[in-house]
Amino acid sequence: MKDRWTTVLLVLTAGALLGGGAAYLLGAVGVAHALWIAGTAVALVPAVWWVVEAVREGRLGVDAIAVLALGGSLAVGEYFAGAVIGVMLASGRALEDYALRRARRDLTALYERAPRTARRYRGGPGGPFDGGVETVPVDAVRRGDALLVPAGEIVPVDGVIREGTALLDESALTGESVPVERGAGESVRSGVVNAGRPFDLVATGTAEESTYAGVVRLARETAAGSAPVVRLADRYAAIFLPATLLLAGAAWLWSGEAVRAVAVLVVATPCPLLLAAPAAIAAGLSRAARHGVIAKGGGALETLGHARTLVLDKTGTLTTGHPQVVEVVPAPGHDPDEVLALAAAVDQVSSHVLAHAIVRAAAERGLALGRPYGVHEEAGLGTEGMVGEHAVRVGKALGTRPGWERAQRSRAALDGAMTVFVAVDGDTAGVILLRDTVRPDAPRTLRRLRRAGIERVVMLTGDRADVAESVATVLNIDRVLAERPPAEKVEAVREEAARAVTVMVGDGINDAPALTAAQVGVAMGARGAAASSQAADIVLMGDRIDHLADAMDVARRSRRIAVQSAAAGMALSVAAMIVAAAGLLPPAAGALVQEAIDVAVILNALRALRPGRGTGTPIDEPTERMLRAFEEEHRELRPPLETLREVADRLGGDPPEVVLPRLRRVHRFLTEELLPHERDEERRLYPAVGRLLGGSEVTATMSRAHAEIERLVARLGRHLALAEETGLRPDRIDDLRACLYGLHAVLNLHFTQEEEAYFSLARHDRFVS
Is residue 129 situated within a structural domain? Predict the structure, then answer.
């Protein structure tokens, strides 16, 4: 409705101006004046209404200048000037509506595509997935329902994949254009599209409780459709409005000509201030939505643009939020793959979060899992069942190897890891170490945020101080506040907010109070609790913190363009006002000058709709595909790296006839799989990364690591050759062990550096703001 009236206003005022102009050229001066008067009056009515609305809200903005200019033009007989001002107001509003429509487009698209129906299995004797499929309203789906998601359809509710692998397009929620794969037991969020074959889903919530419903609520809460930010004009009105009136009055008194006062008011008509800033901020909301960032109003986005302090929760924000298997340590006489496969087989039927991590690790290593039976789970102790002919228990240690088990607990404590012991047929067979790892995109994101203006980074967590400090060291965080309950988190955020504009980022229920204490609260909405999402000003829909850097880039650019547009418009208007006060710019010419100023600054504000450079690194598609391919190779190569440490641990303890075959397997892996990967990186990947990041110097240290890896592998080869000739002599064991430990350390560090410095480029930096 509003858009239609804006169009009508523009058509009427423009028609009156052009019609009057045609009549004037034909010599019908009276008709021309009548048409221009009509155009001025048509514009005056809504302008008066805008002023009345502002007064009702307790403010008197610079809209009043437009009313005085229109009324003054009629009073002194400058009908053409009044008609031009009328077109100027109408065209300015039309440009604002265009910008807001563009801003609403991405937000409106979110809830316009919300699923309306779901395909539910009727169930039968064979279980919930037995029987036919019926189409039901999405509101009829309940927790635990068995659903079918056909190819190309939107996932209707949050759920868990029953079996197999699903290929999902998550771009509507995260902005990530590349489909992702989710395996059996993994969670799927409503609103994503099935980009592969049909799959079965077990609903974990109703439509109202699901992710997409939250997105819709967030989209409707945004202010993109109304005033996206407190208009910059109103902030300056306290100075601009009285200054304009004083200058107009002084020109009138000095010259004795009322027409000069009208000329001053005409060129002071503040369309740049009224419309350019909101258009820029509204465009910023649109850009943010494309990155999977929902801002609850332009005010939040604007404040984010000049934040100086960043406070971050640790778990789920700086770390992945779920444990991952970092190592499998077999007991003497057992193999790590055997230990992991047996544990994962039993854990397939467990709902424990650690069980999901173990099953996922087995799948990543390509291990075949046996079918368990007789499985039962005892809270606090673990899960046990039969796999083939073996009785397998996964959970707490049995105590059958007390010295070995104690050593593994000490090792885990040093690494800040959790332990899951695996027993086979009543004897401890190994231990699985799990840890909540740092997000691969976190280091690059924090560097980007510092480049964007963040001066201080604080970690605020309820976790142990030693665990928090280890994460903070990796990420170069300025201050660590650990072991803080929710109440103390709020106080800490308030303390930081008192010093500078502060952004708080969190994802859990206990983060919700702290989010409200900051000037801008940001929730990790992909897996975060509803409480934190509702308390936040900005919600990151993707499960990646680099969305925050994207939002910061968008916010800074939008705010910069808004201020630039408003300031330029004011400066040009003030210059024109001085010229008009001197009697050198009559009202009619002044109206045309002001129209040109308005169009220029509003079009400048609309630049915020286009992508900008930001702090990200633009990346072309071939390089992105290459980075993703090498990242996939890393995932395949990482598990065998642990064999280096395991073999080193056994040196001197196991007999040579046991150790030598293991050394041969390690050396074969290094020479046939790992070194070709490293050489391929040197030949193809590093030149491409160098072009992206500004030269070969950025990859020089990585190349040096490649050289060290080559040297250590060659040294290991010489040790193996000597062992084949003369046996594994005791005087060589220490050096051989040092060689294996050195390779293990160098390779793990090198892999992590590449993943954080290079592979993270393909995760999101190609989406520039």
Answer: yes
Structure tokens, 595: 């129209």
Reduced to 3 states (helix: H, G, I; strand: E, B; else coil), residue 730 is helix
In 3-state terms, what secondary structure has residue 392?
strand
The answer on 640 and 746 residing in a single domain is yes
Contact (Cβ atoms closer than 8 angstroms) between residue 293 and residue 554: yes
pTM of the model: 0.66
Could you tell me which of 199, 117, 128 has the C-alpha nearest to residue 157? 117
Asked if the structure places residue 276 within a domain, the reply is yes
Phi and psi at residue 481, in whole multiples of 5°?
-120, 100
pLDDT tens, residue by residue, 473-532? 888 899 999 888 777 888 899 999 999 999 998 876 567 678 888 888 888 765 544 545
Q: Hey, is 181 helix, strand or coil?
A: strand
pLDDT at 224: 38
> Is the separation of the CB atoms in 298 and 229 below 8 Å?
yes
Q: Which DSSP helix (H) or strand (E) runs through 8?
A: helix 2-25
Residue 609 DSSP code:
G
Residue 497's domain is classified under what CATH number? 3.40.50.1000
pLDDT of residue 455: 93
Q: Pick the residue with more confidence: 226 or 292? A: 292
Domain count for the chain, please give it. 5
- Output the CA–CA distances (angstroms, integers) from residue 86 to 30, 459, 587, in the order listed: 19, 54, 13
Asked if residue 666 and residue 591 are part of one domain, the reply reads: no
HEC assignment per residue over 517-580: HCCEEEEECCCCCHHHHHHCCEEECCCCCHHHHHHHHHHHHHHHHHHHHHHHHHHHHHHHHHHH
DSSP characters over 216-235: HHHHHHS-TTS--S--HHHH
What CATH number does the domain containing 374 carry?
Answer: 3.40.1110.10
Whether residue 547 contacts residue 540, with contact meaning beta carbons closer than 8 Å, is answered with yes
CATH code of the domain containing 188: 2.70.150.10
In a domain? residue 616: no
Give the separation between CA 443 and CA 148, rounded to whole angstroms: 39
The verdict on whether 313 is a catalytic residue reads: yes
Task: Evaluate whether residue 547 is within a structural domain.
Answer: no
Give the pLDDT confidence of 508-525 residue by residue, as tens digits: 656 767 888 888 888 876
Q: Are 65 and 271 in contact (CB under 8 A)?
A: no
- Specify the 3-state DSSP secondary structure of 384: strand
**Contact criterion met (CB below 8 Å) for 329 and 646:** yes
571 with 705, same domain? Answer: no
> How many CA atoms lie within 13 Å of 410's alpha carbon, on the beta-carbon side?
6
Average pLDDT over residues 431-446: 86
- pLDDT (0 to 100) of residue 219: 53
Q: Do residue 227 and residue 95 come from a single domain?
A: yes
Q: What is the mean pLDDT of residues 562-586?
A: 84
Instruction: Determine the Cα–Cα distance for residues 99 and 608; give it in Å rounded to an integer.
Output: 10
Q: Which of 56-60, 350-354, 728-732 has the lowest mean pLDDT?
A: 56-60
| DSSP state letters, 147-187 | EEE-TTPBP-S-EEE-SSEEEEE-HHHH---S-EEEETT-E
Specify the range with the lowest mean pLDDT, choosing from 17-31, 105-119, 279-293.
Answer: 105-119
Q: Do you know the residue count of the chain?
A: 769
Q: What type of residue is 124?
A: G
Type of residue numbered 613: R
443 and 431 share a domain?
A: no
Give the domain range for residue 671.
621-762
Q: Nearest to residue 497, comparing CAs of 439, 441, 557, 456?
A: 456
Of 378, 412, 435, which residue is a domain's last? 435
Q: Which residue of the set 97, 200, 313, 598 is catalytic?
A: 313
